[in-house]
Amino acid sequence: MESKINANWTVKGKYVIITGATSGIGLAAANELAIRGAHMGIVARNEHKAKELAAHLRASSKEPITVDVFVADMASQSSIRRVAAQILEKWPRIDILINNAGAMFVKRILTEDGIEMTWAVNHLGPFLLTNLLLQRLMESGNARIITTASHGHKMAGKGIRFEDLDAKKRLSPMGIMLGGPNFRYGETKLANILFTTELGNRLAGSGVRVAAFDPGLVATNFNQDNGWMARLTMSVMKRFSRTPEQGAETLVWLADSNAMLEQANASYYKDSHAEIPSAAALDKAAAARLWDVSETQVGETFFS
Length: 304
Prior knowledge:
- It is a single chain.
- The longest helix has 24 residues, at 117-140.
- The chain has helices at residues 24-35, 47-60, 77-90, 117-140, 173-177, 180-202, 228-237, 244-247, 249-255, 259-262, 284-298, and strands at residues 15-19, 39-44, 67-71, 96-99, 144-148, 209-214, 267-270, 273-274.
- 43% of the residues lie in helices and 12% in strands.
- Strands 3-2-1-4-5-6-7-8 form an eight-stranded mixed sheet, sandwiched between helices.
- It is of the alpha/beta class.
């Protein structure tokens, strides 16, 4: 995997928290970052897979690195709060936070917190984890927060439907016939970009850099648990997809170069360069509204 590395910044010796690292893009990125000497905290739901990965990363690195396993369900606010406390207790410094975990659910499922599942995992989980770790990131100086978005954010059309955040309409039987799951997934990816925009605005002058990126169409196990039609669709799409390693290239580039210092904070990236997202993703009023709504959903105010 090629990377534009600048001697002024390297991931070597940095401590990286990454979600969704046990498969797909996250796995490819974790492998590459370990080879480059990054210490890592893997946040995963499956403890067994995470421990196997941690052992592999330690063995594959040319440098002696620390790889911790933190078990959490990104759909559960209590689980996220618990793991954030564990991370803060264990590590006095966090240099990079990578919000990579994501999922898509074609049926309307509510979490234990009463939140629609795709929204909870893809947006609200990263929003909460980031804010709970934010003070430590700010104290670390020149820290980075990188969130995996998607070209799929354009499926949300004109923007997030705040009047239907629980997806009753989009994931109703009629909504599903009209492509509701795709819209819902696109909505959460749009939320990733808007969250990054508002976070960058609130972090002005702090030294913390934030970014969202599009990995492209990647051949992973994503969307394999949503029935035979979803599996068939993903099987066909794999013929035109990138490998996970190719999909992770921009993520690694952002983590291991000066790229985020050379562009405006909260930029959106694809193929290792800044790119302009959809018009809906540039809506600063929607970004501010999303922040307020997200605080209500997690029951906590940040930046007060």
